[in-house]
Specification:
With about 290 residues, this protein is of the alpha/beta class. The chain folds into 2 domains: about 170 residues, 3-Layer(aba) Sandwich (Rossmann fold), CATH 3.40.50; about 90 residues, Threonyl-tRNA Synthetase, Chain A, domain 2. It has 10 helices and 13 strands. The strands form 3 sheets. It has a 5-stranded parallel β-sheet. The longest helix is centred in the last third of the chain and has 22 residues. The radius of gyration is 18 Å and the shape is globular. The two termini are about 25 Å apart. It binds magnesium ion.
Length: about 290
């Protein structure tokens, strides 16, 4: 029986903001493997990028990609595939939004007014992506394999970005601010994807009926996710103050940055889960009444 499922942002949370290393979280990841607590990436990265990172970290479960616009689930997890789910033979994908090509066409409506204040990540050369992200050449190429979300390098001011987000809403799209980029997506988002997947895991995966959901993130695009899970970890960032959160409890804010802060906070939250279990007082299950 698994006590919890961890849904975690990658950049700046499980991975160091500058070096993309998860070294400081390795020991905690090993502990979680021993406890049977799955760690599910929930990231603005593409499926192609996330697969490589998940393999390096020894994570072989589902992954939530492109800011929650799509979920990939390995067949061996035994979850039922959704009707619209596409498959590549080993994993199936549930998409929440419209394809990126359609988002781009919509955004083109705003390009006369705003086009000089952003650049699509996918329009940059691999070298340019390497220079804005610090990724190596292979990772930079994978970062451009986006299917459900348009990722923008913001060239304007922060105030411009807020005004642009308002305009984007009039197109029935939404902007979310990540650690580095602005992401434009149609629907879904990390919170919706986590709620959808957690309900499915509890309902369909044996031994997970009472599993608590734990989320971990560092930036504004993690806030909604951090508000819907049973427990949450806000990892401190070297490039900004922790974003404000609306939660009644069950929140840890790390002292350390990135993967060191991730380990620090996850270990505190695991103790909290154990205390709840030992006392027989189970925490309320948020996703039961948080149908997305
Ligand atoms: Mg992040």
């Amino acid at each position: 029986m698994s006590a919890a499922v961890i849904y975690t942002d990658l950049d700046g949370t499980l991975l160091d903001h500058y070096t993309y290393s998860a070294e400081a979280a390795r020991a905690t990841l090993a502990t979680l493997r021993g406890l049977g607590v799955p760690v599910i990436p929930c990231t603005s990265k593409t499926a192609a990028e996330t697969r490589v990172i998940a393999a390096q970290l020894g994570l072989d479960g589902p992954m939530i990609v492109e800011n929650g616009a799509a979920i990939w689930v390995p067949d061996h997890w035994g979850l039922t595939r959704t009707e619209a789910g596409i498959s590549d033979g080993e994993m199936w994908c549930h998409g929440f939004g419209i394809p990126r090509a359609v988002i781009r066409r919509q955004l083109a409506i705003l390009s006369i007014e705003w086009g000089n204040r952003y650049q699509s990540l996918c329009d940059l050369s691999d070298k340019q992506v390497m220079s804005v992200t610090g990724l190596d050449a292979a990772s930079a190429r994978l970062a451009k394999e986006r299917h459900f979300c348009e990722t923008l390098v913001w060239l304007g001011t922060p105030a411009d970005r807020i005004a642009f987000a308002d305009q984007v809403k009039t197109l029935d799209l939404r902007c979310v601010q990540g650690g580095r980029f602005v992401h434009v997506l149609s629907s879904g988002g990390k919170a919706e994807a986590v709620s959808w997947l957690h309900r499915k895991i509890c309902a369909e995966r044996p031994g997970f009926e009472a599993a608590l959901s734990i989320s971990a993130g560092d930036a504004e695009n993690d806030v909604e996710m951090l508000q819907v899970t049973d427990l949450a970890l806000l990892v401190r960032s070297p490039v900004g103050d922790p974003p404000p959160l609306k939660r009644a409890g069950g929140l840890v804010i790390s002292d350390e940055f990135g993967p060191a802060g991730w380990s620090e906070g996850i270990e505190i939250l695991l103790d909290r889960v154990e205390e709840e279990r030992a006392s027989g007082r189970f925490l309320p299950k948020r996703h039961d009444h948080n149908a997305a």
